[in-house]
Amino acid sequence: MHLIETELFQLELTVMLIDRRISAPENTLVNIKVFSDNFSADGSIHIDYKTVGLFARQLKHIYETRRGTASISGIRDSRNYIEFRASADQRIYVKGTLEAKGNSGFTQELDFENGFERESFASFVEDMYQTYSAAEEGIYAD
Predict the structure, then answer these.
(1) Phi, psi of 106 (to 5 degrees)
(2) Distance of CA 76 to the CA centre of its chain
(3) What is the DSSP letter of 128?
(4) Which of 11, 14, 103, 110 has the fewest Cβ atoms within 10 angstroms?
(5) How far is residue 12 CA from its own chain's centroid?
(6) Cα(76)–Cα(133) distance, rounded to whole angstroms?
(7) What is the distance between the alpha carbons of residues 125 and 129, in angstroms, rounded to a whole number?
(8) CA 90, 91, 94, 95 torsion: positive or negative?
(9) Of 95, 139, 98, 89, which Cα lies nearest the Cα of 118?
(10) What is the pLDDT of residues 64-110, one digit of tens each?
(11) DSSP-assigned beta bridge partners for residue 48
(12) Which has the closest alpha carbon to 13: 132, 138, 108, 107?
């Protein structure tokens, strides 16, 4: 699990490689939990594992240069996404949408946006980068 936590915001990402051998573009599931102010949601997106590596590299770029964006979105889950953006005021802003079908059968959706100091982002970035930066090069059959 990878975590960003501040007084008003918490984001948890859990990346699960479903099968290293499949060539389908949806070989990885990313579970997402977000708590933003007094709202919360959890959902998931299906992606290609290499996408996690690219995302980790983008996060590192944002942290080091204080510029740019990094985003991740699902292949089938087109409404679900997370985007980080560096700003001139040295803060990191995050926004996204999580949509899921609830137990009642109704679709629930949370659009969220929050910001935090760049240093609150440091351990999350380093954890993601160390864990997934090599993933962009691809996964191979065992």
Answers:
(1) -90, 150
(2) 16
(3) H
(4) 103
(5) 8
(6) 24
(7) 6
(8) negative
(9) 89
(10) 999 999 999 988 766 899 999 999 888 999 999 998 877 888 888 99
(11) none
(12) 132
